[in-house]
Amino acid sequence: MTAAAASEALARPPYDPELSALLANSPLPSAITTEMIEPLRAAPFTAPIEEVLATRALDHRVVAVPGSDGELTASVFTPRDKAAAAPGIYFLHGGGMIIGDRFTGIENILDWALEHGAVVVSLDYRLAPEHPAPAPVEDAYAGFVWTTAHAEELGVDPRRILLAGTSAGGGLAAGVALLARDRKGPKAMAQLLMSPMLDDRDDSVSTLQYSNTGSWSRESNTTGWTALLGERRGSEAVSAYSAPARATDLSGLPAAFIDVGSAEVFRDEDVAYASRLWAAGVQAELHVWAGGFHIFDGAAPTAALSVAALAARTAWVRRTLGT
Question: Would you state the pLDDT for residue 1?
């Protein structure tokens, strides 16, 4: 039996009815191939940053961040009424390691910045396949180190920097937390991992359940991991910093918030990561949203499930940044 046939034979949690109708009319392909990467990069799928900032009292400046192989670009967003020694949010965007930029999915992050008077630093890390592992996670770590080193200049309390990422960015954020611990670098106050992309091995039940369906299918996931890792994908030659689910020791990491849809590829690896954090003595809050496909809240922000998911995240951010 082929993998596709096996997937079709598996029972799987259905999509939330409100989200299912949206998914049925989505113009995006159910399986992203290597040939689609460039066209997807050229087609903007988020609002221009000028439009996002038009309704938010934030100042925006672009900075150069030294990376391991040249300069990287980051954006710094500062509330106009920011107090001294504000909290910081270091954000890593999603896109399966192959698409997206530092503005992708940043709207809610900027809303939290306004609520908490927090400074946001969002990085353009290099993308695969042009820049395979370890380039993206090394870039992400370099941006985090820069943010903490420039905390005084940014007006940020270096002890109150939240490490946040969505999808591929969530996997990179988890990788940054591991690198910071192992290199004895700066420690984030907590890590916010939204539907993080953690495991290249493609061996969970949820990866089989969501083949050729959803907003990020098993096939799309294979494309992303192969772009990042090449022939190493699925082998023992993969670093835990690039695929954090492979880490054998999760002790000493910052407290985490993890959420994921029940109807998506990343469900099982994200639930397993939360369980392993608890086993290592690390505090973690886990939410599995019934019937949610990958990044459902970004695709359908007014859907009831999306509103509930954002409320849970926002409440955790309030408790975390309020300490």
Answer: 41
Cβ-Cβ contacts under 8 Å for 110 (sequence gap 6 or more): 52, 53, 56, 58, 77, 120
> Residue 166: CB partners within 8 Å, gap ≥ 6?
92, 93, 94, 104, 105, 194, 195, 295, 298
pLDDT at residue 45, rounded to an integer: 77
State how far the Cα of 290 lies from the Cα of 310, in Å rounded to an integer: 14
pTM of model > 0.85: yes
> For residue 90, which phi and psi values (nearest 5 degrees)?
-100, 120
d(CA 121, CA 154): 10
pLDDT in tens, 140-187: 999 999 999 999 999 999 999 999 999 999 999 999 999 999 999 999
Domains of the chain plus CATH, in order, are: 3-321 (3.40.50.1820)
What does DSSP say about strands 70-79 and 58-67: parallel, antiparallel, or unpaired?
antiparallel
Residue 231 CA to residue 78 CA, distance in Å, equals: 42
Element (H, E) at 88: strand 86-92
Is the backbone peptide bond immediately before 27 cis, with ω within 30 degrees of 0? Answer: no
Ordered DSSP codes for 178-236: HHHHHTT----SEEEEES-----S--SHHHHHTTT-SSS-HHHHHHHHHHHHGGGTTST
Q: Which two three-digit tokens encode residue 98?
A: 């192959």
